[in-house]
Amino acid sequence: MKKILIxxxxxxxxxxxxANIFVHTKSDFIIEKVSELLEQxxxxxxxxxxxxxxxxxPSLSIKxxxxxxxxxxxxxxxxxxxxxxxxxxxxxxxxQINSVILDNLNVKYIxxxxxxxxxxxxxxxxxxxxxxxxxxxxxxxxxxxxxxxxSNIFYKDKDQELYIKNLxxxxxxxxxxxxxSTKLEGEVIYKDxxxxxxxxxxxxxxxxxxxxxxxxxxxTFNFTPIKGLLITKPVDITAKxxxxxxxxxxxxxxxxxxxxxVDLKIIGTGDDYEGNINLTGEIYPLAVQEFFEPxxxxxxxxxxxxxxxxxxxxREKITVKSFVVEAPNGKVSIQGLYDILKKNIDATLxxxxxxxxxxxxKETKKTTHKIDTQKEKNTPQKQTQKNNDxxxxxxxxxxxxxxxxxxxxxxxxxxxxxxxxxxxxQKIININPLTITxxxxxxLVTAKLELEPKDxxxxxxxxxxxxxxxxxxxxxxxxxxDALINSKGSITLKTSNPIAKLNGKGNxxxxxxxxxxxxxxxxxxxxxxxxxxxxxxxxxxxxxPYTIKNGVLSTNAYVDSPVIFVNSNGYANLxxxxxxxxxxxxxxxxxxxxxxxxxxxxxxxxxxxxxxxxLQVIGGGLLHGGQTIGGGIIDGGKTVGxxxxxxxxVIGGGLxxxxxxxxxxxxxxxx
Length: 671
Prior knowledge:
The chain is mainly beta. Helix content is 13%, strand content 54%. It has 10 helices and 45 strands. The strands form 6 sheets. It has a 35-stranded mixed sheet that branches. The protein starts with a helix and ends in a 10-residue tail after the last strand.
């Protein structure tokens, strides 16, 4: 890139610098001498369709038409160009460039492979750099006025590309202690091995250089992303600020940032050591949702939320004294410290009065376009080069919450301690402990997320005592289950395929259970003619040990009481969402056993009598000697039920002992 700058300077400046010697000579002789200089220094060839026009008074200026400068590395072309040099300064031995105008400038530069420099080259470079020019001399070589119209600049090396299209730029009074301004408009494309960024810029900035500092006013700065960025909405910035270049520090700033997503005000003061920044304003969650989730409708996501924050920035650390985002349905606040030298985050996060239901998706709109998944599947993935950049970050975050609501359920508190480390070899997050409390009842959880290298998440939980009716309010206002529950278990999963790689085991135990009949619809249907059917059944015991293997949950569970006994054995496939359970419902007062099956899917379960057994055992049980017979119960040393012949008579298939049929139904059995 250095050569291309040299090329432009020689092309546009040395061309006129030679005029100091050749003022009274012909233009073609000047071009010849400049061409020789370009060939010797840059191995570049100068081509001009016509000779430039040279004038001396009142200032030294030259105008050139369609021209080009080409070498093996770069090409520079333009339609028209003019350079104006102060004649008064030139006579006194100083070159001061007043203005440069370029029309349809096109610059293309492809950097060669870097060569290893010899000791001599390094020494020559050091000797050259030691001859420092004063700041005034440097600014004399920068044109006071620069105008670039409809131009294109392309730069490429082995790692990256930069393309500036349709560039229009204007710099006025560019110098020290001068009120200067710049206007810039163009489209920028940046590429490297990982990134592709494309955006447009429109700016209008006034500035004043004062030695090693600058004061500036951003009248207009419009940034419009096109590709490769999270958003494609324009961002408008206005600001008044002053900066110090030795070292670089913001002394004061008064700025606004506006986009469809935010309206923010930034006020800051600082010195060489640290700066204090206040950030206030509004963000628009509904607009963010409509952009990032255009096909989803949320329940009650807020249109706007207020931001109020204060930061202290220094070379060693960034301190978040306060960062608060508050909406009508929730508040989040953050305090913390980022140690830049140690690359460590230590922070506290608090969420209050969050109505979780408002932030959930209510429905998903149907899209008319289809995604060709097969095409994506068959497309070979490009191999990305390993990133050798050193990454290291450690963090310790205390994340707490209070008064979190989801429908009818209110979580009083959530407390957690999150620690982690992220570097080139590993990404590990430990959550220990995580305690969720509602109605003075706790759920205790620990988790380890080993995202790299194992891609393994391990979670253990412990529920010492829980009242089910309190916790399932979020499902519905009329809780269908009332019980005291305790449970322990652990699960593991792969983030790359969480359901298919879900494994674990645990148990669910309970007492003082009350289950309403609508949880057992097949009983209600069969016994609907009975006035004795109860609204609910109470159980003394619940036992449900479970195992999960590759996304398939298996259990052999039961609930028991003096009145009713229900067991269930089978599995639920979490991958396909299919159900396959079977068991018995035993009504002990009525001496009946009903075999049942549960099949179908999660969204459409099919619960009914197991007809394979029912053909042998009416209603799932028989009356025999005042005792319940069926379900494999041994009576008097003999297995009764399931089509077993007892006493020479077939029991089952619609018969009761004594050879009498049940008749019109089961209603009389409850009288």
